[in-house]
């Protein structure tokens, strides 16, 4: 097959591209330039897709012996990821830009261009597995190494995208093995640290970035009764479940710590309360998709597991499509769920689908 390998400049995508070449595919490497602002994605940043990363990817492509290109996706990235991130925070939600990047950039814009240019598949360094059932339907499954499993951030993929996705690292038992392979191949990326933080906020100061791009102002921190218990320097700088950094001037009656329960950008308020008030008994989202075949009867409740963060443990649950929403009821309350997060639904190792969380139902009502 003729395949396009997305090469971020990290060790995982380097080895994935090399394995695709070893498997006999005709491979072309591509690195995505996601910013035109030289001070944003710069050499030495803690994100990914920097100038340094592009150079590393080119060196690896030369060693593998494949053509290599840099494609400018900065305009699309700003519109579909950065602007979405800002809009979500302005609405008081907690977005996941990595989910949006996989959904709208790597497996929408990039895959669309690849197919238009005659490529058969897109190769990435994600730790996940695509299996084919007896009827020929493609399914997304967890990677062999659960510690590195990245199927959560791929939960946004649909059937058409899975049909053209290749993940050569899915069966690899450990990241150490990938690094050892890269070392043996002479890749400059072999011992390169993993990227982390949000790539377009390379210094890791999300609150400062939001202050510049969203615009923030002082407001009140209130308890669940609406009484003012402190002040804040911008509601968008807080997330559900946060404990540290709260400027509280009125102690809780029971003396226990308080946590952010809700962010209200419309009134510029941050609502705080006890930890148990973070327990969620139900979550739902109208923006849901299926990764491959949908359940045969989604309007009938079915057993599953739900995961709400990339590295969280899956929780047994029951899901159902009701009134245009994917409604998920965990077997035991999940702590600290925020609107805007993504709930990924699993059946065994298979990723069944996902929903962007629009609303939650607390396990303990505010009046209790």
TrEMBL record:
<dbReference type="InterPro" id="IPR046885">
    <property type="entry name" value="MnmA-like_C"/>
</dbReference>
<dbReference type="InterPro" id="IPR004506">
    <property type="entry name" value="MnmA-like"/>
</dbReference>
<feature type="site" description="Interaction with tRNA">
    <location>
        <position position="341"/>
    </location>
</feature>
<keyword id="KW-0819">tRNA processing</keyword>
<dbReference type="GO" id="GO:0103016">
    <property type="term" value="F:tRNA-uridine 2-sulfurtransferase activity"/>
</dbReference>
<feature type="active site" description="Cysteine persulfide intermediate">
    <location>
        <position position="199"/>
    </location>
</feature>
<feature type="binding site">
    <location>
        <position position="125"/>
    </location>
    <ligand>
        <name>ATP</name>
    </ligand>
</feature>
<keyword id="KW-0694">RNA-binding</keyword>
<dbReference type="GO" id="GO:0005737">
    <property type="term" value="C:cytoplasm"/>
</dbReference>
<feature type="region of interest" description="Interaction with tRNA">
    <location>
        <begin position="148"/>
        <end position="150"/>
    </location>
</feature>
<dbReference type="GO" id="GO:0005524">
    <property type="term" value="F:ATP binding"/>
</dbReference>
<feature type="binding site">
    <location>
        <position position="32"/>
    </location>
    <ligand>
        <name>ATP</name>
    </ligand>
</feature>
<dbReference type="InterPro" id="IPR014729">
    <property type="entry name" value="Rossmann-like_a/b/a_fold"/>
</dbReference>
<keyword id="KW-1015">Disulfide bond</keyword>
<keyword id="KW-0547">Nucleotide-binding</keyword>
<feature type="domain" description="tRNA-specific 2-thiouridylase MnmA-like C-terminal">
    <location>
        <begin position="284"/>
        <end position="357"/>
    </location>
</feature>
<dbReference type="InterPro" id="IPR023382">
    <property type="entry name" value="MnmA-like_central_sf"/>
</dbReference>
<keyword id="KW-0963">Cytoplasm</keyword>
<dbReference type="Pfam" id="PF20258">
    <property type="entry name" value="tRNA_Me_trans_C"/>
</dbReference>
<feature type="binding site">
    <location>
        <begin position="6"/>
        <end position="13"/>
    </location>
    <ligand>
        <name>ATP</name>
    </ligand>
</feature>
<dbReference type="InterPro" id="IPR046884">
    <property type="entry name" value="MnmA-like_central"/>
</dbReference>
<feature type="active site" description="Nucleophile">
    <location>
        <position position="101"/>
    </location>
</feature>
<dbReference type="Pfam" id="PF03054">
    <property type="entry name" value="tRNA_Me_trans"/>
</dbReference>
<keyword id="KW-0820">tRNA-binding</keyword>
<dbReference type="GO" id="GO:0000049">
    <property type="term" value="F:tRNA binding"/>
</dbReference>
<protein>
    <recommendedName>
        <fullName>tRNA-specific 2-thiouridylase MnmA</fullName>
        <ecNumber>2.8.1.13</ecNumber>
    </recommendedName>
</protein>
<feature type="domain" description="tRNA-specific 2-thiouridylase MnmA-like central">
    <location>
        <begin position="209"/>
        <end position="273"/>
    </location>
</feature>
<comment type="function">
    <text>Catalyzes the 2-thiolation of uridine at the wobble position (U34) of tRNA, leading to the formation of s(2)U34.</text>
</comment>
<keyword id="KW-0067">ATP-binding</keyword>
<dbReference type="Pfam" id="PF20259">
    <property type="entry name" value="tRNA_Me_trans_M"/>
</dbReference>
<keyword id="KW-0808">Transferase</keyword>
<dbReference type="GO" id="GO:0002143">
    <property type="term" value="P:tRNA wobble position uridine thiolation"/>
</dbReference>
<comment type="similarity">
    <text>Belongs to the MnmA/TRMU family.</text>
</comment>
<feature type="site" description="Interaction with tRNA">
    <location>
        <position position="126"/>
    </location>
</feature>
């Amino acid at each position: 097959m003729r395949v396009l390998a997305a090469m971020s400049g990290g060790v995982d995508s380097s080895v994935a591209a090399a394995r695709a070449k070893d498997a006999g595919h005709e491979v072309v490497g591509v690195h995505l330039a996601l910013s035109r602002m030289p001070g944003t994605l710069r050499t030495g940043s803690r994100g990914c897709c920097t100038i340094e990363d592009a150079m590393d990817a080119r060196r690896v492509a030369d060693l593998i012996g494949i053509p290599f290109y840099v494609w400018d996706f900065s305009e699309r990235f700003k519109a579909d990821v950065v602007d979405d991130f800002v809009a979500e925070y302005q609405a008081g939600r907690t977005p996941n830009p990595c989910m949006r990047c996989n959904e709208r950039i790597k497996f929408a814009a990039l895959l669309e261009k690849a197919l238009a240019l005659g490529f058969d598949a897109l190769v990435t360094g994600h730790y996940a597995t695509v299996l084919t059932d007896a009827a020929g339907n493609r399914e997304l499954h967890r990677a062999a190494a659960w510690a590195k499993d990245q199927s959560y951030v791929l939960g946004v993929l649909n059937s058409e995208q899975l049909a053209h996705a290749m993940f050569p690292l899915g069966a690899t038992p450990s990241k150490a093995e990938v690094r050892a392979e890269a070392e043996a191949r002479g890749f400059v990326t072999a011992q390169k640290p993993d990227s982390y933080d949000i790539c377009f906020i390379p210094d890791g100061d999300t609150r400062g970035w939001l202050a510049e791009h969203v615009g923030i102002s002082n407001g009140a921190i209130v308890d669940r009764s609406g009484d003012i218990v402190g002040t804040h320097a911008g509601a968008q700088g807080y997330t559900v479940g946060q404990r540290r950094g709260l400027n509280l001037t009125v102690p809780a009656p029971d003396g226990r710590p308080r946590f952010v329960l809700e962010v209200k950008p419309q009134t510029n308020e941050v609502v705080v309360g006890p930890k148990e008030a973070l327990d969620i008994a139900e979550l739902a989202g109208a923006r849901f998709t299926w990764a491959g075949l949908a359940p045969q009867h989604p309007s009938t409740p079915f057993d599953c597991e739900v995961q709400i963060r990339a590295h969280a443990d899956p929780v047994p649950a029951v899901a159902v499509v009701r009134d245009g929403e994917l409604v998920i009821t965990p077997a035991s309350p999940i702590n600290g769920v925020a609107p805007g997060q993504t709930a990924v639904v699993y059946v065994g190792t298979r990723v069944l689908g996902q929903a962007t969380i629009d609303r939650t139902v607390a396990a303990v009502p505010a009046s209790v």
